[in-house]
Amino acid sequence: MTTTLGDTPLVAIGTLIRGARQNKGLTQAQLAERLSTSQSAIARIEQGSQNLSVDMLARINAALEADLLPISSSPRPTHLRVSGGHRLSGTITVNSSKNAAVALLCASLLNRGRTVLRGVARIVEVDRIVAVLQSIGVQVTWSQDGRDLEIIRPADLDLSGIDDDAARRTRSIIMFFGPLLGQEPTFELPYAGGCDLGTRTVEPHMIALRPFGLDVTATSGEYHARVAKDTGAPVYVVLTERGDTVTENALMAAAGRDGETVIRNASPNYMVQDLCFYLELLGVSIEGIGTTTLRVRGRRVIEADVEYHVSEDPVEAMSLLTAGIVTGSEITVARVPIEFMEIELAVLGEMGLRYTLSPEYTALNGRTRLVDITVSPSDLKAPIDKIHPMPFPGLNIDNLPFFALIAACATGHTTIHDWVYDNRAIHLTDLTRLGADVRLLDPHRLDVTGPTRWSGAEVSCPPALRPAVVILLAMMAAKGTSVLRGVDIIARGYEQLADRLIELGAHIETFRD
Ligand SMILES: CC(=O)N[C@H]1[C@@H](OP(=O)(O)OP(=O)(O)OC[C@H]2O[C@@H](n3ccc(=O)[nH]c3=O)[C@H](O)[C@@H]2O)O[C@H](CO)[C@@H](O)[C@@H]1O
Ligand SMILES: C=C(OP(=O)(O)O)C(=O)O
C-alpha cells in the first residue's frame, strides 16, 4: 500500500483503510456491514471523497482490528483562561447565522442544479450537516478561501450510507424530512440530537408534515418515513407551534411539490426569511414572507444553478453587543440585521443603554436590512417588567440568556422568564460562581439582582451554546483570572469567537490539559 505526498489527508486515510481492509480479506460490503453503513459509503471513504468524524475513524479501527491512526475516542477538550476587567475597543463584524445555514443546507436537497451558499460561517453545526450530506452522496465543497459552499446532489441519494454519528449530534437532521418527502416514497433517518436544553419535541414537525402525506413511526433510534402519493390538490397546514425549524420543514415540503400550499401560524423569523429568499431563487413562489401566513407554489422538479449569500446572525449580534455592554466598553458591532434586534434594543434602551445606529444598508442577499451599532459605557438599571422571549417579532428566544448577564450588571431586580426551554435558565445560575446574585425561582424563572461585583473563578462550561457564551462574557467582565473548562460547544455556533474578542482587546488564552 502506498500513499503519496501529494495526497490530501482524506485520500491518504482512505488508502490506508482500503489496504487494511484488503489485508483482512474483507470486501467493501462486508466492512460496510460491520459499520452499519452502505458499500457506497465505504467506497467514498476509500476514495477520500467523504469527510470522516473521529468517531467513525475509531469505529473503522475497531472493525478492522487495526490502529490505522492513533485516535483518541475523546479528543482533548479545550479550555479558556480569561483575564477579565479589560475594556474593549474597535469594531467587530457579525457573521452569517448558524440557523439559516443549516436550513439552507437541508433545502439544497431540493435542487438538482448547483447551489452555492456564500459567506457560510465555519462552525461545527455546519460541519455536521455537511458530513451528513456527504455521507448520502451529496458533493459539498468549500471554496479555496473557505467562505463559500458549493453543493451538488446526485440523482439518487444514498440514504442507507447516512453518517449516523454526525446526524445524531444535530437537531437539524429533522429538517431532512421536508425536502425528502417529495422525492422518496419511504426512507429512514436517525433521531435528532442537539444541545442540553431539556425536552424538545418533534411532534409539531410530524403535525406539520402529515398534510403532505408523511407518516412516521419511530423505533430504536430511527424514524421510518412513508409518504403517500401527492394528488396535487392544495395543501393547508396549520402549525400548532410557531417554531422556526417546523416552519422551514413545511416550507421545504411545499417547495418540492407542484401546486399550492398555505402554511398558517408560520414563524416569520430570520432563518425562515433566508430560506424563503433561497427558495425564490429556485423558482418557488412565496407570498407573505415575513408574516405568519405563507402561500407557496412549489415545483416537483427543481434544477437551477443559484448563488445565495447567507444573512447576518442576530444572535451573534446580541452576543457581541453584550461583550461591549458588560465590559463597560465603547465598541461598534457591524452588520447587525436590525429587523431582528429592534425589541432587544428597545429593552436595552429602557435599561439605560446608550447606543447609536448607523444609516441602514442592505445585506449581500439583497434583502436583509443591516446597521452598525455603537454601544457606549452606560449606567444600567433593571427593567420594571420581566423580560421574556416570544416567537418573532418578539425578543429572540436565543437572545434571552444574554439578558440575564446584562441584568446582573444593572442596578435592581430583574425577572427573566424563559418559558421556552426546560433547562436553559438553570445553566445561567453558573453566573453565581463569578459573584452574580442569580436565583432560580423555578426551572423557567430567574431573579437577577445587580449590580454585580464580578470576581474571577473556574467554571465548567455549561452543555448549552448560549449559556456557555454568557459565562465567557461574564468572565471578561470579572477582574482577575477565570478559567472556563471544556468550551468546545461554543464552536457549534460561533466561528473563532475567542480570537475575534481578542482583536477587540479581550485577554483570552486557549489551552488544553
Ligand atoms: C436550527 C434552528 O433554527 N434552531 C432554532 C429553532 O429551533 P427549533 O425550531 O428546533 O425550536 P423548537 O421546535 O425546539 O422550539 C423551541 C421550544 O419552543 C417551544 N415553542 C416554540 C414555538 C411556539 O410557538 N411555542 C412553543 O412552545 C417548543 O415546544 C420548544 O420547546 O428555534 C429555537 C426557538 O426559537 C431556537 O432556540 C433555535 O436556535
Ligand atoms: C438552541 C439553539 O440552537 P439549536 O436549535 O441548533 O439547538 C441555539 O442556537 O441557541
TrEMBL record:
It is found in: Cytoplasm. Cell wall formation. Adds enolpyruvyl to UDP-N-acetylglucosamine. Its EC number is 2.5.1.7. Pfam families: EPSP_synthase, HTH_3. InterPro entries: Cro/C1-type_HTH, Enolpyruvate_Tfrase_dom, Enolpyruvate_Tfrase_sf, Lambda_DNA-bd_dom_sf, MurA_subfamily, RNA3'P_cycl/enolpyr_Trfase_a/b. One of its GO terms (biological process) is peptidoglycan biosynthetic process. Residues 17-71 form the HTH cro/C1-type domain. Transmembrane segments: none annotated. Pathway: Cell wall biogenesis; peptidoglycan biosynthesis. This is UDP-N-acetylglucosamine 1-carboxyvinyltransferase. SMART domains: HTH_XRE (SM00530). Its main location: cytoplasm. One of its GO terms (molecular function) is UDP-N-acetylglucosamine 1-carboxyvinyltransferase activity. It catalyses: phosphoenolpyruvate + UDP-N-acetyl-alpha-D-glucosamine = UDP-N-acetyl-3-O-(1-carboxyvinyl)-alpha-D-glucosamine + phosphate. The keyword Cytoplasm applies.
